[in-house]
Amino acid sequence: AQSVTQLDSHVSVSEGTPVLLRCNYSSSYSPSLFWYVQHPNKGLQLLLKYTSAATLVKGINGFEAEFKKSETSFHLTKPSAHMSDAAEYFCVVSLISSGSARQLTFGSGTQLTVLP
Amino acid sequence: DAGVIQSPRHEVTEMGQEVTLRCKPISGHDYLFWYRQTMMRGLELLIYFNNNVPIDDSGMPEDRFSAKMPNASFSTLKIQPSEPRDSAVYFCASSFGALRNTEAFFGQGTRLTVV
Prior knowledge:
Distance between the termini of chain B: 36 Å
Oligomer: heterodimer
């Protein structure tokens, strides 16, 4: 079985300071990992994805994440938060499964607040 | 491409009524997924299709829910009869390939309120 745990339900940072959103996963196979962002009353937008290439993945809007197999982690970071980053962030794992499509398993989400 | 298109964006209905949610995936995508998002349970996969064929509907909560994909460009999720606990945001997503090296693209969602 696969699962993903977002360690913080809420994170609050000041504008201009670094952002760290934590994610741990469990899987029996090589995962693909994604971070999606959801702004209020909007759909889900892909920030970045890891698919077994480079372990440090750069995404849109200055976000990046590092895949650490030994720690089963895929934390999302950004050097300097912007007010427009305030949203809910979802860590998502997708596994190779025999015979059928990979399925996405979503974490419970982290609500990021950016303070002026 | 306009992305995944869902309609309606908002739906308010009375308990017991039939509700139909619609989705147009991105052209050329061969997988289509229906998700439900609630505060209590987060994002849950309800059902997904591959080349218009339902592959896994184990996430469909009960027989009141049904989904169809009559062709590659259209899918529906129907709830009959609807109940207040069905109130949620329903997302449709599509992808090209089985999500190994590709991502799912999500629609804007349909916010369903059953009163």
